[in-house]
Amino acid sequence: MSGLDLIYQRSSCHVHEMEHPAPDKQKLKRILQSVMSAPDHGNIKPWHIVVVETEHVPTMCESMCNAWLDNAGHIDPTRVRRLTSYLKDAPMVVLVSANIAEPHAVSRRDQVLAAAAGCQNILLAAEQEKVAAVWYSTDAAELPKVHQLFGLTEKQEPVAFIILGTKKELRIKKRSDVANHCYKWVGNEQLTTLFE
């Protein structure tokens, strides 16, 4: 499979579309090594990765749910439980955060985007390794007690939970045409269609 085919055929597998086992340590190392190839303005390497292995996932979900409920009284408890129950059957959870260097000439935003680019690389590497993966983001990770739960410092900003497991079946998602999103700049405030 060519590099572009890998990208074109990559497809997220939701938790109910994956099963155990999670990738073993060797495969996981190959997948996570991909973050080191993400764009990184300033060569900061702003990646902080916490892996929750299978046996600790239920405890993580319960702790996260409690932390969220304790810190976000305005959120519907049913929604909280639904979001955390989505994770409880995950074979493996990977929390990717941006390890922010401040003060620094490279903006905080660029450092967070470098961490996000690392997440995309993880998804592509997982596809290459035939591992089921999905990028799952939730503001639960930004609440103070959840931050502490994962041992994060104030300079480590959560970007995404990535779930890894085994694909139940091959799934290829139909893609739309990028032409609908592309324009050519031809002068001040003037855009035309890039692809006919």
Strand count, sense and barrel status of the largest sheet are: 5 strands, antiparallel
Radius of gyration: 19 Å
CATH architecture: 3-Layer(aba) Sandwich
Low-confidence stretches: none
Instruction: Please tally the β strands and state the result.
Output: 7
Outline: globular
Question: What assembly state would you assign to the polypeptide chains in this entry?
Answer: single chain
Structural class: alpha+beta
Order of helices and strands: HEHEHHEHEHEEE
CATH-wise, what's the superfamily?
NADH Oxidase
**Beta fraction:** 15-25%
In the CATH hierarchy, what is the class?
A: Alpha Beta
Total number of helical segments? 6
Ends distance: 28 Å
The helicity comes to 25-40%
Number of domains: 1
Average pLDDT figure:
90
Please name the CATH topology.
Answer: NADH Oxidase
List keywords for this structure.
alpha+beta; 5-stranded antiparallel β-sheet; NADH Oxidase; 196 residues; two-stranded antiparallel sheet; 6 helices
Would you mind describing this structure in some detail?
The protein is an alpha+beta fold and 196 residues long. It has one domain (3-193): 3-Layer(aba) Sandwich (NADH Oxidase). Helices cover 36% and strands 21% of the residues. The radius of gyration is 19 Å and the shape is globular. The model has no long low-confidence stretch (mean pLDDT 90).
